[in-house]
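Reply to dn_fold:

You asked what the input looked like. This is it:
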Amino acid sequence: MRRQSGSRTRGARSLPACAVLAAGAATVVGLAPGGLGTEQAVEVTDGASASVYRSLTGAVDDVPAWAGTVLEAACDGALVVLGLLLVWVWWCAVRRGDTRVSAGAVLTGTGAVLAYAISEAVKLVVDEERPCRVLLRGAAAVAECPPPGDWSFPSNHATLAAGLGVGLALLRPRLAAVTLPLAAAAALLRVLVGAHYPHDVLAGAVLGGSVAAAVLFAFLPLARAAASALGVLTR
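and this is what came back:
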């Protein structure tokens, strides 16, 4: 009976995780501009995403030269803040003996790193050229355009930001008012500096958020039990 109950519990945990992953994968595939099985890089020159990109980059086209550095630093700063929040949440949970949150913080970091690795693999499959080389021919982006071969789809920054932001929001819902806007700001800034199309950052956000959520749904009870056992052994 216990084995059957354990199997049912694991199955109940895996269902939402699989559903989130399936929805995330379908969204990323739907946003992808192509590239699978082709030898040439994909160039997106029209459509809603290219139009929004032109509008957003045009809005900051006249800012001073140093503004690009500031915007890039702000994007990286948002990631740093999210990372520090994760460490803070973990540390506070450890001090309180809250194994659910401490284990969940570790899983959130793991999920964000896993999502980043997946985003790197997807980049090599899609081979989408950066918009700063495709749409800004003859004009410079606010920030320096990444070198050729550093593909655009999906955005690694958006993937990491959403993975951390969504994971923290699920663990500590009160932090959602901070973490989710920070993740959205990091994604938006990647478009403003000219490095990504809007569909790149949207795909990255969906990828990071869905992987982080799936990891928490699937493994939090096991990780919590392991953290409790470790706490007992170290007393």
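The chain is about 75% helix and 0% strand.
Hope that clears it up.
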